[in-house]
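STRUCTURE:
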């Protein structure tokens, strides 16, 4: 949910960590019987964890969408790029993607690594139906969440390496728009001071 609010929390790294944690509850000694026994013993915990993570991911994607919808309904016509913390070219690219895929914007948003929040926000500002957007997000999450949990499963023996790698890759995409916005604001501030 924090990722949906724009905080520096990597949803991907968290989901990989969940995959690592859940896989460590299973007996993986190469025999099918021991795996089935360990799964059946821990099934309620595993299933409830996956279910809660799934709904948390889907609901967190709706936060920027509804912020965009609120932005549209307020009639504010200010610079969307500065509010998103991304460059004008990137905002135009995301807007074109949302226009291109229209009702599939929720599904496309799930695969928009590093620009999930701006994609959801712009979908909200462009009048995409909340129900259709949410259905797309839920459908996309049925693909992205197992991939993230699977990466955790595959890297269960090296959890620190797995989390560091995922956090580094995703962190660059998460922090980049905010860094660009901060540098632009500083540049405009210094330019304004030098002209006075």
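SEQUENCE:
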């Amino acid at each position: 949910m924090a990722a949906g609010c724009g905080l520096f929390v990597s949803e991907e790294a968290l989901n990989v960590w969940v995959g690592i944690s859940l896989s460590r509850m299973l007996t993986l000694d190469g025999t099918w019987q021991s795996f089935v026994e360990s799964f059946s013993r821990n099934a309620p915990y595993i299933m409830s964890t996956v279910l809660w993570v799934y709904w948390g991911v889907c609901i967190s994607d709706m936060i920027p969408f509804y912020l965009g919808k609120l932005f549209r309904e307020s009639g504010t016509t200010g610079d969307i790029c500065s509010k998103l913390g991304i460059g004008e070219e990137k905002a135009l690219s995301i807007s074109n993607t949302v226009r291109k895929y229209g009702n599939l914007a929720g599904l496309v948003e799930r695969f928009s690594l590093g620009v999930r929040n701006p994609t959801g926000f712009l979908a909200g500002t462009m009048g995409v139906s909340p129900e259709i957007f949410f259905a797309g997000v839920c459908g996309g999450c049925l693909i992205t969440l197992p991939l993230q949990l699977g990466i955790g499963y595959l890297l269960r023996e090296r959890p620190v390496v797995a989390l560091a790698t995922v956090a580094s890759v995703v962190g660059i995409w998460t922090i980049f728009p905010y860094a660009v916005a901060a540098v632009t604001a500083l540049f405009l501030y210094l330019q304004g001071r030098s002209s006075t």
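REMARK: The two ends are 43 Å apart (CA to CA).
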